[in-house]
Structures are given as C-alpha cells and as structure tokens.
C-alpha cells in the first residue's frame, strides 16, 4: 500500500502568533480526526520550523517540512539554509522544485537534482514538485515537460533513494488560481508519471511511490481527486492555512 499524504505548503505566510495557533490547531484536530494511515505534513517558512516541530511533539501522524534548502552543506552562502541544518532540527520533509521556486528563483532541474541529493543524504524525504505551465498544457506537451523534470531532477537516484521521494504533480495553471485540474486530468497525468517511474525503476518501485496532486485542492474537491487510483494525496497551498479545511482534506480518502 502506498503512503497517503496530505502536505500543507504555507508558502511565505503567517506571522509568529498565527503560525503557532494554526500549527496547534492542526496537531490537535489531526490527532483526533485524521485517519491513522494518512500522514499530515506542515511545510512552514524556515523561521517557524523549530516552533512548529515542538508543537507537533509526539503526534504519530503529523510531520514538519521545509519548503526549500540550499545545495551546499555549510559555508559562506549568506541567507541560505542547508539540508544539514534542517536535519539538525528534526525536520522530516523538504519541498523541492515548487513552481514558484522554479519561476521566481530560477531553479533548474540540475540544481534540484543536487538539492534532492542533499535532502536524502541528511535523512529527510523530498516532496518533489513537477508540472506544466498553461502554455505547455495548451500545446499538449505536459507529458514531455514532466518527463524532463523527472529525468533531469530525479532519475540519477538509485532505486533505493528514489523510494524515499514523494512526487507532487502540480499543474502550474491550477496553483492558487482556483482552477483545479479535473479528476480525470489528474488521474491521466498521475498514471503517466507512474508509468515513467516504472519504465526507469520497475513496477514495484512505481507502485510504492506516493504521487500527490497540487493545485487549488480544497475540501469540496479532495474526495473526488483522492478517489482516483493514482492520486495518493495532496500538496495543499491556500487551504492549508485554515486548520479545519486542511484536516477535512486529510479525511477525504
Ligand atoms: C501549492 O502551492 O503547492 C498549491 C497547490 O497551492 P494552492 O493549493 O493554493 O493552489
């Protein structure tokens, strides 16, 4: 059975007090309501990670993730945070290759391959984002786009290390736009992605890979998305900032 995951991407949102109250609320509700076979992950801005980690405490199904890390382990890289530093705070997951990082910070597949290595080498798990922009979808090239992102960003990994990766298919035209991919569009791409993984690593590895959908997922559409055979959960932006909505999504399997 593949791991079911609902990961919240807080992006660059929330001041200290609001971050503490959201994280506390998520932990409290998730403990009681989220099915025990679903992992709930809060991916917070760096500055809140340590506090959120301590609020999660020993909750069995709640985890903490960062939204990025640097390629190098330490040194004169002012303003950056390394995978090694994140691991020293007990952080469990790191989102890599989010479309906002690719677009605004010029992150290439090659850079992301190095970041993936750093995350895995430090015992954390990458949530690796792939997905096409609107023009690519309109041109019908979405499959080629994700295939390139996978092959250049991840397919250098050994099968054992690839087994640590969580994939997130996020059509960029659906992120923060209120425009969700239909469940049929999501399923078609998730199946294609799983086939690409199978072609590289074999069916057993592909069948064990969790592929999350991201792009305007919310309580009202999560159930239909998660009912698709190749959709194993969600990477949730806007709706992860409201504890009740986020947890409702985690109950949508
Ligand atoms: C995201 O940022 O990864 C995302 C999916 O955002 P939203 O849910 O707001 O579309």
UniProtKB/TrEMBL annotation:
<dbReference type="InterPro" id="IPR020861">
    <property type="entry name" value="Triosephosphate_isomerase_AS"/>
</dbReference>
<dbReference type="InterPro" id="IPR013785">
    <property type="entry name" value="Aldolase_TIM"/>
</dbReference>
<feature type="active site" description="Electrophile">
    <location>
        <position position="98"/>
    </location>
</feature>
<dbReference type="InterPro" id="IPR000652">
    <property type="entry name" value="Triosephosphate_isomerase"/>
</dbReference>
<dbReference type="Pfam" id="PF00121">
    <property type="entry name" value="TIM"/>
</dbReference>
<keyword id="KW-0312">Gluconeogenesis</keyword>
<feature type="binding site">
    <location>
        <begin position="237"/>
        <end position="238"/>
    </location>
    <ligand>
        <name>substrate</name>
    </ligand>
</feature>
<feature type="binding site">
    <location>
        <position position="176"/>
    </location>
    <ligand>
        <name>substrate</name>
    </ligand>
</feature>
<feature type="binding site">
    <location>
        <position position="216"/>
    </location>
    <ligand>
        <name>substrate</name>
    </ligand>
</feature>
<keyword id="KW-0963">Cytoplasm</keyword>
<dbReference type="InterPro" id="IPR035990">
    <property type="entry name" value="TIM_sf"/>
</dbReference>
<comment type="pathway">
    <text>Carbohydrate biosynthesis; gluconeogenesis.</text>
</comment>
<comment type="function">
    <text>Involved in the gluconeogenesis. Catalyzes stereospecifically the conversion of dihydroxyacetone phosphate (DHAP) to D-glyceraldehyde-3-phosphate (G3P).</text>
</comment>
<keyword id="KW-0413">Isomerase</keyword>
<comment type="similarity">
    <text>Belongs to the triosephosphate isomerase family.</text>
</comment>
<keyword id="KW-0324">Glycolysis</keyword>
<protein>
    <recommendedName>
        <fullName>Triosephosphate isomerase</fullName>
        <ecNumber>5.3.1.1</ecNumber>
    </recommendedName>
</protein>
<dbReference type="GO" id="GO:0006094">
    <property type="term" value="P:gluconeogenesis"/>
</dbReference>
<dbReference type="GO" id="GO:0004807">
    <property type="term" value="F:triose-phosphate isomerase activity"/>
</dbReference>
<dbReference type="GO" id="GO:0019563">
    <property type="term" value="P:glycerol catabolic process"/>
</dbReference>
<dbReference type="InterPro" id="IPR022896">
    <property type="entry name" value="TrioseP_Isoase_bac/euk"/>
</dbReference>
<dbReference type="GO" id="GO:0005829">
    <property type="term" value="C:cytosol"/>
</dbReference>
<comment type="subunit">
    <text>Homodimer.</text>
</comment>
<dbReference type="GO" id="GO:0046166">
    <property type="term" value="P:glyceraldehyde-3-phosphate biosynthetic process"/>
</dbReference>
<comment type="pathway">
    <text>Carbohydrate degradation; glycolysis; D-glyceraldehyde 3-phosphate from glycerone phosphate: step 1/1.</text>
</comment>
<feature type="active site" description="Proton acceptor">
    <location>
        <position position="170"/>
    </location>
</feature>
<feature type="binding site">
    <location>
        <begin position="9"/>
        <end position="11"/>
    </location>
    <ligand>
        <name>substrate</name>
    </ligand>
</feature>
<dbReference type="GO" id="GO:0006096">
    <property type="term" value="P:glycolytic process"/>
</dbReference>
